[in-house]
Request: fold
Amino acid sequence: MMHEHQKPETRAQWSSESAFIFSMAAAAVGLGNLWRFPYMVGENGGGVFIAAYLIALVVVALPVMMLEVAAGRLKQGSVVETYRGATRLGAAYGWLVVLLTIVITSYYLVITGWTLGYAIDAFRLNLTEFDTFTAGYNSIWYFLAVTALAAVVLLKGVRAIEAFSKVLMPVLVVLIAGLVIVASTTQGWSQAADFMLRWDASALANPTLWFFAFGQAFYTLAVGQGYLVTYGSYIPRKANVPRAALIVAATETSIALLAGWMIFPFVFAHGMDPGAGSELAFSTLPRVFEDMAGGAWLAMAFFFMFFMAAFSSCLAGLKVIIAAFAEELNLSNARAVAATGALMLALGLPSALSFTPVQLTVAGMPVLDFMDQFGGTNVVVFSGVVGAGLLCWVLPPGRVVYALGAKSRWWSWRIFVVGRSLPFLGAGLLLWRILAG
Reply:
């Protein structure tokens, strides 16, 4: 029986499978890979983290990604509607995912504000280091500007996101690849290669490493955050979900690795700390462009595209929230956008204030860093594990196979094996981490 908060009869769709691929890749690449991946590698041992991350991504995150996209396509509703269709308790989990996305997007908007500020400073030929940039209240002003701009774009619907993404992705890849080539000529290239390629296999026995690796793998592919379910609900009938997911995953992973090869040679060349945390890219790149021939022009291009990539991640997160509010609370798109914007302003301000003279902290770290470590790893892993188990133990396999849009049963078999075992594996990893700690 159809629920009273059902999707509208006429639901917008991506124009094609390629449009979904571009839009989904743009949604996840912005901050999960360009900003978060290098600093996670830097804080967790370099090459050994990359190895654990790739294993987690291929073995677990990729099948779960396909599952979430297929579930969204099957139900063609918000994340809450999708999980409600699976089980009575699914609506509660769906709202948990929306809450997680609210938390993540609130600080995403702050970081996206940094990218906008750096882009503007690059065009003003006034790039500064991160400490100087955040000495005043730039974090707040740019956070407010990005939130308002996102609201304007989201009033236009999914086709605006699609058009935006088709331009963004190719140009971004070319720029990153160009910077990697430049990085390969620096004195820090060999140190970066050692850092990213050499590691002690015994480090794989550290459960905390695996916990962060799974968190980043889920983060890279946007697992457990509602993006995949929501974007999958707009996917056209003829699309092949496994093929589309493989292309997106390959794109995301390649850009994440390129981001590491882009940043770490400069980090070592300038004698900086690879474990600097969330500010790593913003501390490193201004120095890079300052010392580079033609660096001013390259800085303009890079930070503008960095902003556009980060902005696409914000649009994806906000779309998850808006779709849930519109369909569950019976709001028009405009009212859902307004309500979501107000919520972002209220929740994002503490993260913005943590990088101002106020220096707001939680547990001895900036509020933004705390939110990212807690929500960006702990809750994302929990959400992805619970969601996969919920879908695989409740949804009929035949329906999922149908929603995948693929003739081969290899992926459907693998999805259900991973999905049904993931809650037990997740509990085992948590127990291992507790006992080892």
The two ends are 48 Å apart (CA to CA). Residues 118 and 372 are 21 Å apart (CA to CA).
